[in-house]
Fold each of these.
Amino acid sequence: GLGSAYDYGHYGVLLKTNVKNEWWRAMIQERDDIVALDSAIILHPKTWEASGHLGGFSDPLVQCLGKCKQRFREDHLREAQPEGELKCPVCGGELTPPRHFNLMFKTHHGPVEDEGSEVYLRPETAQGIFLNFKNALQTSRKRPPFGIAQVGKSFRNEITPGNFIFRTREFEQMEMEFFVPPDAAPEWYDHWKDERRRWYEELGIRPDHLRMREHDQDELSHYSSATADVEYLFPMGWSELEGVANRGNFDLTQHAQFSGEKLQYVDSATGDRYVPHVIEPAAGADRATLAFMVDAYDEEQVEGRERVLLRLHPRLAPVKVAVLPLVNKDGQPEKARAIYEDLRKRMPAEYDAGGSIGKRYRRQDEIGTPWGVTVDHQTMDDDTVTLRDRDSLDQSRIAIHELGPELEERLIRPWHSPKLC
Ligand code: GAP
């Protein structure tokens, strides 16, 4: 495989899908002022002229002239060493002067590979949203303040990918552009900063592992009048998890100019017209998945043995409930299988009959399954099962017919990481 490119296996896919679904829930299901979009990845190349990506979307690249010949981002090296001449952080060698390197992947559209067919893989999902602003306004019966949300792959030819799935060249973004009357922009900027922090906390990230960092004036992107990063305390230190930006009317004005379309809101009652301002919460699905995993990881001693577990929010857990027969005989496997087949209609469930019961519990703990259901000899007499809680290890007895409704109710209950206690 390529370096810094990762494939997600079974539980990884389920976990990241849950992260994206929770984002959609917060943006669409639990609000009525945002609509969904799935725009093309390869857009008209003029898009990137209008957005400023062709001119300005570059990072300063330096290369070691010493032994190791490695490449670095000059701005990252400067963060570690604010003053003086920079040297290679690996071998101490001299560095080349910085060269600006455009981060967009280039390809060709159609069979002829000439300059006229050059296109780019999108480096952010946001621009597809701006291109659809007029469409959404005309068809969705929304008016500012309203938003358009999109989840999908973006591509950046990063100079220094790394830290596992934190920075890769192919990644998924979860972005929402919220169009507001110009004078309401500051208020909505504050709203989205609060909302986005709350989203991570409600899904179990410990509040002391999150902070909001407002950008200094000289850090702001060309389009932004204010930006704050939601930062997470990753194992390598505080790093950006998500950006919330006040983009003003930069994007709609630029796209109007390059496309010749009027991108405005006209109030039919008052005749008022204006170019909406945009507040943008822009998150990474892979980076959020990494943060949820890191925050949930725990090791503890239980009866003299180490237990490794993911204390994931139940809604993020890849599997919600595991159904296990205590022994592989006396009708227990058949009974357990029937319970599993019933539960999986309501939520992702697993049936596991292989190995000792202790080992099967531990396997589920490691993938963060919040609940375990055990079928034992008593089940065969009275149709009750043991319900085990991943975090407290409490075991209670519950009637089989109550299992489904009980677990569904637990899935919508507020949840806090027991690591807080
Ligand atoms: N539309 C604005 C925008 O794209 P960004 O801060 O460049 O802003 C938003 O990206 C989020 O996308 C980041 O906070 C991060 O979570 C994710 N992201 C950006 N580059 C990434 C990369 N190379 N690998 C993984 N995630 C990345």
Amino acid sequence: MSNPSLLILPGDGIGPEVMTQVKRIIDWYGEKRDLAFDVSEDLVGGAAYDKHGVPLSDETMAKAQEVDAVLLGAVGGPAYDDLDFSVKPERGLLRLRKEMDLFANLRPAQCFDALADFSSLKKELVAGLDIMIVRELTSGIYFGEPRGIHIEDNMRIGVNTQRYTEAEIERGARAAFELAMKRDKKLCSMEKANVMESGILWRDVVTEVHADYPEVELSHMYADNGAMQLVRAPKQFDVIYTDNLFGDILSDCAAMLTGSLGMLPSASLGLPMANGRPKAMYEPVHGSAPDITGQGKANPIACILSFAMALRYSFDEGAEADRLEAAIEKVLADGARTGDLMGPEGGTPLSTVEMGDVILAALDASL
Ligand code: IPM
Ligand code: MG
């Protein structure tokens, strides 16, 4: 049997720097765990625009459709701020999500014990925090038609449309209920059913799907209250299911609870392919971080944890994902810190490469 295939799209800013460390981890699995991948690499975002004039070429899109999983670094940067909307780096990312039909975006927000002091919330509110946000990723206001800017009566009007079919709400809800079944069996669905018809439909459909998962305790919350509850008492949540736009906002909010955006991975999953694996793309939640690009000090952990999610969700290697996550917990507990994780006690931060070194050493020690 041939090796599973990975397409690496490092992208812009710190994307290539953190992805270099992920490639070392991938090689480690090939050498030490007999888990080799066929890895290819290509351009996305501003890097693709510079070469092809588009943030994702048709060739790269076609490759992404064929591989077992895509690993993406980050897209965007100030050099591309003035580009036309249609070729902005973010459009490359949105095209991948839409054309691969990656409807279930899993965004875990986990607080590592060693970092509980880094949260802007009191330590006792976040220690042991473990939330999974499931964000619908292929529909809603990000993609709804009509959209655009037009002129009526000499006035410019900006239009976007929130639109959800029941099938779209349902398939994401099933993914969220399935995850809840493997966790603490609690699901909170968030929408704005008090002001939006799409929110009323959302609540109805999630309630209908619940009939198939009677063991899961389902609750509903208005998304604004959800934002408030996330900063008031985040540990009340297990799995949260919400739409594309609310999920974008609530996941940033949840991410910051853990102290550092540089720690959080994500998985975007679609329908099963012929080989049974889901269509999938894995990416850190952080962006391209232009302020520290090229300085060798970015935290590679979110990107490495994204590869751990790939091991778990694409390759059925849960034990190896556990191994990688444990190695990261270990180095953090031992005090390894990149610049974004420096507390008031100070110290010398590790470079991106040095963080890769200590994680590889911890992996070696786990054998
Ligand atoms: C995210 C990002 C993206 C989004 C941007 C870069 C298009 O904020 O993945 O959360 O809005 O979905
Ligand atoms: Mg976002």
